[in-house]
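yo, Synaptogyrin is done. seq:
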Amino acid sequence: MHIPESLQDLADSEVVQFLKRPKIMGRILAGVFSLVVFSSLLTDGYQNKTDSPQLHCVLNGNAVACSFAVGAGLLTFLSCLGFLVLDAHEGRLASSRFRTAIQLLDFILAVIWACVWFLGFCFLANQWQRSQPREFLLGSGSAKAAIAFSFFSVLVWVFQAYLAFQDLHQDASVPYKRSLDEGAVVLTTLSPPLTASPASSSTTGPHRLNYASAALSSYLSTPKAPRLAMMPDE
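structure:
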């Protein structure tokens, strides 16, 4: 099957290659899941009962459950957007310490969000189990969607923590490797050339030095004849 050049160029573009990275795909999924959780409960999570016009949380009437899900979903979505921006400018970070600090923060937040969503899933599922059937006119679908995507968020954030740990572990050995590479470059720069040109070898080669030293030693070791001095006439 022939692929047009325009589609091939699009597939090889930096944006597509950036989006195909596992870490970026995990961030996008985590952001989408958190968006589903807080938007579903924010729109249909508060409903009135069959015998009252007052709005209550569909999760057993517990406002803490809905507030927790909405707040956690919103903060998770914002953190995903922030790290996507940092990932997009990762190549422009000149300082290795700053890059390591970002990777460490990414790992810590991924572990925290995995724990938060695990506790949130247990809490939301428990409140939904305690809810009375047909207590609210609407909102049951939103509650189930929030619980399901809370569980999916746990899996995604565990995967993100694993990828962040791998990046942090690989970046830890970079300064040592970089120092070895720099040392090799310095040694290569300072080392004398192995071969010399014919012109320079004729004047500064080892045979020339040996000949000069032999001539000097023979000159010093040759006995000198006594000189006759002319005495002035009296």
